[in-house]
Amino acid sequence: MRVTIHRRTRRGVALVALMASGALALSACSGDSGAMPNDDGGGDGDVEIRYAWWGSDDRHQTTQEIIDLFEEKNPGITVTPDFTDWDGYWDKLATATAAGDTPDVITQEERYLSEYASQDIVADLGELGVDTSEIPAETLATGTIDDTLYGVATGVNAYAMVADPQIFADAGVEMPDDTTWTWEDYVDVAGKLSKGAGDGVWGTQDYGFNEAGLAVLARQKGETLYTPDGELGLSKETVAEFFQVSLDLMANEGQPDASRSVEYQNAGPEGSLLGTNAGAMGVWWSNQLGALSDASGRELELLRLPGESQFERTGMYFKPAMYYSISATTEHPEESAKFVDFLLNDPEVAALQLTDRGLPSNTTVRESILPELTAADQKVAEFMEGLESDVVDNPPVPPQGSSEMQDIMIRINTEVLFGNLTPDEAADAFLKGVGAAIGG
Amino acid sequence: MAVIHEVARTRRAATEHRKGDGRAAALFLAPWFVGLVLITAFPLLASLYLSFTDYSLLRAPGWVGIENYTAMFSDPRFFQALKVTFTYVIVSVPLQLVAALGLALVLDKGLKGLAFYRSIYYLPSLLGASVAIAILWRQVFGADGLINQVLAFFGIEGQGWVSHPDYALGTLIVLNVWTFGAPMVIFLAGLRQVPTMYYEAAAIDGAGRLRQFRNITVPLLTPIIFFNLVLQLIGAFQTFTQAYIVSGGTGGPVDSTLFYTLYLYEKGFGSFEMGYASAMAWFLLLIIAGMTAVNFVASKYWVFYDD
């Protein structure tokens, strides 16, 4: 008996080893099946279009309501929802596209639009006759590549300094005037806050994990992350200066030590310094103010980033939250265009969606929903309105490969925080890494 | 004559019967076979082809020969991924097996409520590769996590273990060692197979517990050790979930947890270099097959089959 068991064990080992090494190694990634229940009773020779987006449960619900509304107003068109979370979205969209099954209406994002546009996967919205008359030209420019409108911004956000007035008050530090404060003031204020607010409360959260901060600094100096031709538009000095701010903030204890910074970075708005009442400042996208306010239970304020009057020009800009695009190979271009038109211009859509896809890019529609907004969102709207006259222009659509910049930024910033790279070395590594990503 | 006819008829019937069996077998095998071809074999071969192409998913694949393979060897992050993975495998697998064997020995001593303890110790194996545990790990080893609170009690100031480049991989190794339940259960089964008469005989001859362990238990257990070793090695090479969650999908801090599979995923689905990712997958297959082959050859010298 024992003999047979051992024999079997031996053969079993070989077999299992072979199967495990072969099958598992190669079929490593299995995505979600992605099949979405299509419960629309439709039928009767309906035209059916598929609408793909990413997001949270809240967004899925509102979007379904919007779809229902559209179908009600447009009998004969059925919209099939196709949604997933952010991470799965791009895997799924690329796979669907590779399989020749591109959704008719696609939500796009800045870092991916170029890639899809360059392969002519998304159509020219201008040609399809989507009404964009209520959307400011500089917002439309954020979805235009080579004079072709590949995506229309759903809404806009701004990268801003979020501040907790209560900690400022506790620490006995005055809120800075955000139109005049310099980067040196920022370091200084954060240091004072850390000292004044007592143990476990910091001045600010490290800003170096997001390239948007670098974009603002670069623009203030008359540079840009990317040129309209898709080249890097940064000087090494600017990048080094950007990293130096973090080091200065660690030196005067205006921000936490390196490993805490990494942790707070990974913790999202809810676990951030501001969200946990453990810090007075942090840079965030303006649409995150709501989540931050909810987590902190306090009334937070939006400030412009430092340095707006320190150098050549202002650096703040409006970033398209996301875009609506239409597949170039859709069988129903007319109906798809009609749907995008509806999403952009119908006040009822905006009333449902509010600021979930950014502060609506359609200014008339934006006006109409202001009274409906939460206190935090009203603050965002106000802040954006105040910014309007000072924003010189918006950055061009980033080139292909730019989706890697964030990863590179996180990696190099971490090295800087832990003291493995000097700001100078970091700047070299950053420019080299991003250069390779967008050149390859 | 009648007998011969009878025999022939029986034979014919048997053949027909067997034919029917064959059809039934084919029918029952079909679902498995279709699955194998469509879900395993086809993607497997497709990835072999893609590994020789430049393929971004959005564009049709273009043949580039062995360029992806040569590119790997001038990619510093590829080497970093190899280093991280090998460190992880070489450190965590032996530790895990020692822990598993040690506990199996304790539990084998006919403890009261064995089934209960066995389940408790097996639990981490079920949970280890899950997202929830990876998130828990991040909390436990965080700057203000459980570990540091315990350390603070003894007056030691710890740091953020998962967020420090020097320690992040260590926390993942601990996580893997902690999931020793599966090999432990197999060890337990193996220990049960060792006949007690050997121990009785040894005890009569005056061999102590340690001697018995070294000269009876270990030799008779070597096939089981070997089995566990091979399985855990292969599993460890393919570690993904823990690293993905603990590092937030980046392999950070500073690529210190950039596991091979994580980098593969990042290349494939992060920067859409499917050709490169496929080449990496095939290279991993070669590594694992090589390691397993070495294991089998080496096993001749230390694994004792009692037959």
From TrEMBL, chain A:
Spans traversing the lipid bilayer: none
Alphabetized SUPFAM superfamilies for the sequence: Periplasmic binding protein-like II
Pfam families per the UniProt record, alphabetical: SBP_bac_8
Gene3D superfamilies according to UniProt: Periplasmic binding protein-like II
Coiled-coil regions listed in the entry: none
PANTHER family xrefs: ABC TRANSPORTER SUBSTRATE-BINDING PROTEIN YESO-RELATED, ARABINOSE-BINDING PROTEIN-RELATED
Protein known as: Sugar ABC transporter substrate-binding protein
The species this protein was found in: Isoptericola cucumis
Organism taxonomic ancestry: Bacteria, Bacillati, Actinomycetota, Actinomycetes, Micrococcales
